[in-house]
Backbone:
């Protein structure tokens, strides 16, 4: 019917947008769909715990209305695995102790996957030295800057950086 909202594809499954247009994507994921990997942290877009991928780009889902995702593809941390096989970054977080309490881990992982896509496209950050280069090297400083929107209050930052660096070795995300 004309005027109907197209569905939202969440982890490969079509989902109808919520009836209430004020519903955040975060609340749709957690409260309606039971996808509890996406965490509600600050609910103000400052901590990154609710980071998911929308059409491959990382977004904080607490600030995005679910209705804005109609016709788009949303991937949460649950959708990164291939069947029973975890995403390589999920394995690296375990191998490199990139988590402590684990609360920020899903947002960190989704953010790093989105960050890697940005690096592949050559998107510079505020610390990228050569803005005209064909390739962005994922150096230690580059990685930390790009992940700075995701906070970890437990102090697992070194393990997080090691996991992301190990997964996207050589700066070629």
Residues:
């Amino acid at each position: 019917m004309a005027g109907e909202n197209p569905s939202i594809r969440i982890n490969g499954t079509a989902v109808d947008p919520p009836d209430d247009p004020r519903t955040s994507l975060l609340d749709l994921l957690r409260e309606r769909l039971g996808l509890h990997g996406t965490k509600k942290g600050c609910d103000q877009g400052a901590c990154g715990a609710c980071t998911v991928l929308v059409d491959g780009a990382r977004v904080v889902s607490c600030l995005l209305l679910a209705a804005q995702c109609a016709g788009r593809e949303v991937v949460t941390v649950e959708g990164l695995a291939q069947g029973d096989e975890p995403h390589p970054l999920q394995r690296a977080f375990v191998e490199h102790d990139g988590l402590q309490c684990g609360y920020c881990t899903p947002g960190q992982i989704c953010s790093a996957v989105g960050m890697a896509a940005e690096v592949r496209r050559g998107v510079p950050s505020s610390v990228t030295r050569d803005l005209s280069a064909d390739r962005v090297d994922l150096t230690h400083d580059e990685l930390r800057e790009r992940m700075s929107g995701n906070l970890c209050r437990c102090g697992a930052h070194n393990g997080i950086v090691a996991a992301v660096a190990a997964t996207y070795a050589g700066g070629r995300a």
The domain at 8-79 is CATH 3.10.20.30 (Ubiquitin-like (UB roll)). The chain has a mean pLDDT of 91. The beta strands are 8-10, 13-15, 51-54, 57-60, 73-75.
